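Two folds, back to back.
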Amino acid sequence: MEQMNNRTDITDLRTALEVLRKIPGQIIETDTPVDPQAELAGVYRYVGAGGTVQRPTDTAGPAMIFHHVNGFEDTDIAIGVVGTRQRVAYLFGCEKENVGKLLTECVQHPVDPVESKDPAPCQEVVHLATEPGFDLHRLIPAPTNTPVDAGPYITLGMCYATHPDTGCSDVTIHRMCIQGKDELSVFLQPGSRHIGAMAERATQLGQPLPISVSIGVDPAIEVTSCFEPPTTPLGFNELSIAGALRQTPVRMKKCLTINEYAIANAEYVIEGEILPGEHVIEDQNSHTGYAMPEFPGYNGKASHECWRLKVKAVTHRKHPIMQTCIGPSGEHVDMAGIPTEASILMMIDRALPGKVTNVYAHPSGGGKYMAVLQCRKETHTDEGKQRQAALLAFSAFPELKHVILVDEDVDIFDTDDVLWAMNTRFQGDRDVITIPGVRCHPLDPSSDPAYDGSISDRGISCKTIFDCTVPFAMQDRFRRAQFMEVDPEKWLKG
């Protein structure tokens, strides 16, 4: 049998899972009954969740598939599919150190999605909201992360919509909570994502915004949908990056009840409309005051300004697979962080070609708050360019808060090595550069006037550069110990 090419032969969630099944330690499947309300996330926390969630037993643990979900006997739930960088690398067909570089190439050579005229897997089963007994609680096995969540959440829904003026379409991920039998709340962070701008414009025109929500898709779509401006400005369809990665267009299918398209190979599709100017309280059913755990590792406050999405239909495959994730987990790190790395690499390489060899969006920052830059100094004129590169990184990804600069001999993916560089190549009084009063990310709990009176508004931070590089003129003094090269196998045999 011909061996599968992980880069080009994965077309959907199911083929991705088949790849993981063939790699030892990457996936666990269980028939033990599990409650989707808090219990499922609790199980995964201890088995494989990473990131800033309360530390599990193994931060590089496997993905999980639950085959027996209480209340949904014909449905599986998958979690952790892109939960580690190594797993993403397997699914992208590249080395884990190069996933950011691969996406950089893909952004520059987009392949636009195409409409499929063939019957779509995502429409094998159809449920219309006009039918008796239609109820999202019964149709969508959306878990909760904790007992105090506002409700069942769709955490990996690919929201697809079209700008009412330009006709340009886009895909992004937003948290969505089931609020009623045919209603979802959608949290659209103001000014940060394309679909939020579309909803605002539709409201100005006094018209609903048709939107499809595709759940359970090719992991390439999940990761590439997290690109943000300026790398992908309004009008740039991120599905074209996934098309470039797979070297074939993403297949789209016309929705049945709205004037929009959905991802043809999805497990589930929710069809509906964001109603103009209508907002709902996120915890209107639970009254806990919380939404769900957010990527920084804290329970997020329930929003009073979520958009109201009226559902028209739910379609899905036969025996569908629901896909979900824990908010503060390795999945968020990879989906947010790898596009961040690609965006930073692209911008720096345009201005300072060859001076930054790689970038790592560190997991402790959820893929958003912290980046480690591996810098190259070849001549005395390169001194200072590493700090310029840090400024460019802040421009490439506005939500970035901290940048750590290290030399080429430091492994940016090894936190111990990065901290070694900080301890031996860094002086706080000369190597810290602060830029106060800059807009970063509103979910950082320290970016709040209550934390410090100098902070003027929530989401305002002090961007900071930690320059842990060796001055060019002193490189000989900081050369790492050179041990003799030997073949260790000689001493390990017998």
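---
second:
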Amino acid sequence: MDFPILSSLILLPILGALFIFFSKSKSNSDTTSKYLALFVSFGNFILSLYLWYLFDPTTSDFQFLEERTWIKGFINYKVGIDGISILFVILTTFITPLCVVYVNNSVKNSLKHFLISILVMESLMIGVFCSLDLVVFYLFFEAGLIPMFLIIGIWGGERRVYSAFKFFLYTLLGSVLMLVAIISIYWITGTTDVEYLYSIGIETKYQKLLWLAFFSSFAVKTPMWPVHTWLPDAHVEAPTAGSVLLAAILLKMAGYGFIRFSVGLFPIASEYFVPLIYFLSLVAIIYTSFVALMQEDMKKLIAYSSVAHMGFVTLGIFTFTQQGIEGSIFQMISHGLVSAALFFSVGVIYERMHTRLINNYGGLVSIMPKYAIVLMVFTLGAVGLPGTSGFIGEFLILMGAFKKSFLVATIASFGVILAAAYMLWLYKRVIFGKIINQEIKKLPDLNKSEILILSILAFVIILFGFYPEPLLNTTNVSVKDFIEIYYSNINFTKN
């Protein structure tokens, strides 16, 4: 196929952002900007579905490759996808138009610039999942910080500046070491081409230090315990659409990075550091679940639950099993959908009540029955109930973990119980009980745009819960060959 479909996916939101920027805005509620942003983001989603239709799941080779010389002898603009990366591209293009639709109701100032930030961020995130050159990956990876920094810092809550800078500094400092590692890889091998690095391998004596350098960045972005503290602050202060993008997509860049780079480039070091990953993942699953139980702010509770769910992801990746890695990818997609839905749901009642404190709610079931129904679906998805997408990912991860360590899998299983505890406890307090706050009686139920957004998410969460085959078929061959190459590298080194 000659058509540069991946570059189109990356560039289309940027072009849309430029059109919006240069359009003449007569008022804050500029209709042109709204419709243009929606048209571009939805168009990108359709293009990503076409990409999925063209994708060949029977091969693990990178497809739709595009390569252009950028800086001769050093950096090539190289993009391509396989079964591991394509689903993240689709997730990005799926979530973005939902954010655009939601923003129309929620953002009251500088809507035009907010839409520009969302579209630019979409471009950069797609670039992360398509990059097959380490330098290009790094540029996309770090550039994604800028629009999110602006979204939190300009349109966030009262402590938005503090949270924005905390988010920026944590993630930037974590990535400095990754940049040093990329330069070191070029010095050692003479290339930053990911495909070529896979074929030649990196000398064993360098792998541990390089692995730790990449880990410093991915651990912060995931986020893993104990460098997770920026996430609750960022979520609490970010506007709803910002929280959705942060939870649904931005965190997935790190999980993807662990698979593509940490394990793919440094198999020997990955094997060596398995105990460290298991320990940090289990602490994240158990500890942050208990912390979530104690939260009074709905956004903070969901933020801590994200840390726990991403703990399952890192655990699954480092089992190095078919079930574990497939489960991790599925869990990331599912968490992207469920966390987006939960943050949208919180945004719905926050726009009405201007408070996120759980104690200020109660008895919503009789006032907002439609809202109560969709929130129940999302809560059960977060719990991992069979019939929702959340179940498939966690089940596969635990299967992979049991193959490697009965003890680790058993401890991780308690995380599922704790997730049920804090999510059902949240649902009970918000939806049921007596109406203590009389303001609740005045609340309108879901409007048309809210019904549209939440219904779509509920449908997809249930669909992939009952029918996960399209996702698993897409990843199966790529993951299988990825694991085979990993173990062949391990065995070759041992021999």
